[in-house]
Amino acid sequence: MAFARSFSCEHCGVEVSLDAPGTTHRNHCPSCLWSRHLDRNVPGDRKADCSGGMEPIAVTVRGEGRWVLIHRCTNCGRLRLNKTAGDDNALLLMRLAALPLSMPFIPFAPDPEVAPARKPRARKAAQSANGRSAQSAGGTTV
Fold it and tell me: Can you give the pTM of this predicted structure?
């Protein structure tokens, strides 16, 4: 029985060879980095019940500097780690790596939907009133 040596990417349509430089199990498209939810526990077991699209959402680095894709299933939400291959789209890998930098967790600009903060003048007025009461009580202010 002969096995297919390639597959067609369901996300972008590219014909993908199963021979991947740097990995033994080709499990994602080198062009768009998408995959399919085929494996349940072990790479290559093909026992997943879902078969949904696996979106590349991030990259991480493992031992010896090896880049690994993080995929999330668009049907069931399961996360899977997949080794990158030598012919993967380097621009898309870099875009995934830089994604956290483009969405900082600290807001640098005020959110227009959030109520505006109190005006600074109100705080200064309260401080000067406290200073006058301290001076009138015989204290000094710094």
Answer: 0.64
- Express each pLDDT in 84-139 by its tens digit: 999 999 999 999 999 888 876 766 666 666 555 555 555 555 555 555 544 555 55
The secondary structure of the chain, three-state, reads: CCCCCEEECCCCCCEEECCCCCCCCCCECCCCCCEECCCCCCCCCCCCCCCCEEEEEEEEEEHHHEEEEEEEECCCCCEEEEECCCCCCHHHHHHHHHHHHHCCCCCCCCCCCCCCCCCHHHHHHHHHHHHHHHHHCCCCCC
Could you tell me which of 31, 35, 29 has the C-alpha nearest to residue 54?
35
Largest CA distance in the chain: 100
Residue with tokens 């994602």: 28
